[in-house]
Amino acid sequence: MNHSQTKNLVGTALCIALGLILPQVFHLIGAGPVFLPMHIPVLLCGLCFGWPFGLVCGAVTPLLSSVMTGMPPLFPTGTAMVFELAAYGALSGILYRKLRKNIYISLIAAMVGGRVVSGLASAIFYGVAGKAYGFQIFLTGAFVTGLPGIILQILIVPILVIGLEKAMVISKPTISKV
């Protein structure tokens, strides 16, 4: 295992740990569903370490959180979040690290793509659970309730990634084939 691979694995583990700690802090003040704190480390992971690491971080974090804290409830919410956050991590990494898109374009496209995946997964899992889930519920949950979190992500995540690149903690994206 080379130094870069080790750095990516350690960084991913750190992002998973942040994905477990941040929601606990935000839930203490009842702001978890509004500020979406689990999303930030997953987006960071994809942008900083690439799509495979972002995908794993996004899939593992909500499962671990559900098992360790009971939040989110494993089914149907936690299961849908596995797909949503895995999409965030993978899409942000593909767009930024592989396709070399602007960080804001990569971030916003990953956020939209993850929300679409969330809507589809939620429709399936809530349907299996016999719970109501429609387009209005999707729009409210994905865009209205979480609007402060969306704004926070757009403001904070690029600053953190660019800062880590300038400090040479992570490398800037290089041209590679998809």
TrEMBL record:
InterPro entries: ECF_trnsprt_substrate-spec (IPR024529). The chain crosses the membrane at residues 6-30, 42-68, 74-96, 103-129, 135-162. GO terms for molecular function: transmembrane transporter activity. Keywords: Membrane, Transmembrane, Transmembrane helix. It comes from the Bacteria. The keyword Lyase does not apply. Signal peptide: none annotated. The keyword Transit peptide does not apply. Gene3D superfamilies: 1.10.1760.20. This is ECF transporter S component. It comes from Eubacterium callanderi.
